[in-house]
Design a protein that fits this description.
The protein is α/β, with parallel strands linked by helices. It is about 35% helix and about 30% strand. The protein is built from 11 helices and 22 strands. Strands 6, 7, 14, 15, 16, 17, 18, 19 and 22 form a 9-stranded mixed beta sheet that branches. The chain has a 6-stranded mixed beta sheet with strand order 9-3-2-13-21-20. Helix 1 links the parallel strand 2 and strand 3. The two termini are about 30 Å apart.
Amino acid sequence: MERTEVIILGGGLVGLTLAIALDAHGIASVVIDPADPAKLLEPGFDGRASAVASAPWRMLEAIGVGKLLAGQGCPIEHIEVRDGLSAGALRFDADSVEDPLGYMFENRALRIALYQRAKAAEYLTLLAPAMPVDTVREDDGVRVILADGRTIEGALLVGAEGRKSPTRDSAGIRSARWDYDHVAQIVTVRHSQPHRNVAHEIFYSDGPFALLPMMPGDRSCVVWSVSRDDAPAIRDLPDRAFLAEMQKRSGGILGDLEMVSPRSAYPLDFHHTAKVVEQRLVLIGDAAHGIHPIAGQGVNLGYRDVAALAEVLVEGVRLGLDPGDAQLLARYERWRSLDGLMVAGSTDALVHLFGIPGRPARALRRFGLGAVERLSPLKNFFMTEARGSSGNLPRLLQGMMI
């Protein structure tokens, strides 16, 4: 039987980051993940990329992951938002004094850096592949039984397994959920014109089309949301026809496009849990809130969870409290519940707002984009949200250790 302080179920981008943040502050954890790391790190496993906002990037730097990613992330210095291919765009520019709005990373690069940092950790044990078959939460602690017969004991259980979290479901935590009529088509392209570190978000009534800048300057990740009814036909298009459709959607903003990665597709849905804590249990990341990628906040919402939970646990342990203490979990829930709900709700509202067809709706949207462009306070609000710097900011998101 192995004893630790925190047991984290799920070793993805969010779960492993939490374990590393705790290790940096001397709190022991065991991360249990059914996936084989060797397969996850294969070049062809996952063509997705993630936008890491500037505040979560400061956290990655503080806990020793940032240096392992040096030179691999493309700075996002500008964001241009359009309703269709309208001439006028709402443009967000990074302040010349501050960091970029964020960085685009291939998910594989993020995983490699996290595994490297985890291997060097003093207080972190990674069990992968390892399959949990039972969890027990009691007044005085938690236990996880693995398929190979091992038992891990701890004070707190963290569910970080993603959207289909079995830990959330077995705890009976309800969530509001619905499917979007969208499937995300994802591919990396090379373009004839440099992206100049600009992220483009083009909204169509049948789904948004994003061009997200990657390294080097002539590559971008395309995230193209298509209707669920059209998805099978688009999936079956030959590469040349698929490329022609992307070219049309992009409006030639970056010149001629050429695919440089395999295509992948992911159905999109929404869920938000009624609560994020239970007896000796915390849900973080997509286990607690799965949102549309329309604003690039998915993994950043999880990183905000990590920073807040790490601060609550570190401060609690320094006071002599058990990491699973109900007072600490209540503090975490108060801290994160409103922010999680606001981000999830605003993202969902954007999806529906830009999905309304017709000329009157289009005119209203373009008026709204123009108003945001002209009103500095409103524009600054959206920029703060894009950076992940809004609200009561945990110290890790400010780049400081706890």
